[in-house]
Specification:
Length: 335
């Protein structure tokens, strides 16, 4: 079954053709990141307009690369939530018109379910159940993936998502947007252990997290240094910040797997590219005798193929939608 898949929830327009949820026939992406870098973050109105400009040509590109005619497409999948509402609407509306014109089913896909499904493309043997750590620009979730479309949230951030914190911390360190990768690169130059950053803790909810205090601590450190004319050890701060994030995520991931009785852990989302978090997850899983799947770096960030992968399993579960399907800025992964 060939699915034409659309992703437009943030600043990447992405269109892919995926066969049977596992085989990527094409994966076309137009990133707007360099444009938003001028403003230090994503400008929603610009994102929507750029999706409109890119999506038709990108669809042609994806079909051509897949060596596939429109008539060979069996279904159309699209991210319908969560994300920047204007941005999501562009991809979803385009997908609806494609499904309508081709006379094929329309499959709504939750963006974070897509991030998790990116792993099905890289690891043919991977099947639920497993515990997923989903960490991206807008979400930080510990999810018990009981089946391809059966998910339960075990833990989540109460405020900022980890990716957002990396981006804000990067900004005060003078790094470009999106800041996660530049922060990661900067951190390679230090062993850290220089800056004391607050530990993430939520009273009475051991699997939940709060990252706003950590973000504020980095902002305060940078401002204080500026005010007293002190030189910051930027590499050490980047390293200590990544370690503080990892110290919040990794033990909770292991604890969540234990609680759910899972022996397999899967990482997903843009922040899953972080070298400190990847290294700590590997060490912890080895120690605990758990099997770990880390997505290849190219599948961590937003892409269309992951929507095609999850779309296939949503279709098998009977989850198709009519032309009245709406887009949502927020939506529970479990719904
Ligand atoms: O999954 P993604 O591409 O988009 C969303 O669905 O949100 O994630 C983007 C986030 C950004 O905040 C970016 O700074 C972060 O992932 N990121 C990283 C790294 N690479 C990307 N964060 C930490 N370390 C990295 N190497």
């Amino acid at each position: 079954m060939k699915i034409l898949a659309f992703e437009s929830s943030c600043d990447e327009t992405a269109v892919a053709v995926v066969e049977d949820g596992r085989r990527v026939l094409s994966d076309a992406i137009a990133s707007q990141a360099s444009l938003h870098a001028l403003y230090g973050g994503v400008v929603p109105e610009i994102a929507s307009r750029k999706h409109v400009e890119a999506i038709a040509a990108l669809t042609e590109q994806a079909l051509q690369q897949a060596g596939c005619t429109r008539g060979e497409i069996d279904a159309v999948a699209a991210t319908y939530a969560p994300g920047l509402i204007g941005a999501v609407l562009v991809g979803l509306s385009f997908a609806k018109s494609m499904a309508f014109a081709l006379g094929v089913p329309l499959i709504p896909v939750h963006h974070i379910r897509g991030h998790i499904a990116a792993n099905y493309l890289a690891f043919p043997e991977l099947e639920p159940p497993f515990l997923a750590l989903a960490i991206s620009g807008g979400n930080t979730l510990l999810v018990d993936v009981r089946g391809y479309t059966d998910m339960v949230i075990l833990g989540a951030t109460r405020d900022d998502a980890v990716g957002e914190c990396f981006d804000k911390a990067a900004r005060v360190l003078g790094l470009p947007y999106p800041g996660g990768k530049p922060m990661d690169d900067l951190a390679q130059g230090s062993k850290g252990g220089v800056y004391q950053l607050p530990q993430v803790h939520v009273d009475g909810a051991e699997l939940d997290m709060s990252f706003s205090g950590l973000k504020t601590a980095v902002v305060n450190l940078a401002h204080h240094a500026q005010q007293v004319g002190e030189e910051l050890d930027r590499a050490a701060l980047a390293r200590d910040f990544a370690q503080a994030v990892s110290d919040a995520l990794v033990p909770r991931t292991i604890q969540a797997a234990r609680q759910a009785g899972r022996k397999v852990i899967v990482a997903a989302g843009g922040v899953a590219a972080n070298s400190v978090i990847r290294g700590d997850l590997e060490a912890a899983c080895r120690r605990e005798g758990l099997k770990l799947y880390l997505p290849p770096l190219r599948l961590c960030g937003d892409n269309g193929a992951m929507i095609g992968a999850q779309g296939y399993y949503e279709f098998l579960a009977g989850h198709t939608a009519g032309m009245n399907l709406n887009a949502y800025a927020t939506r529970d992964i479990a719904e």
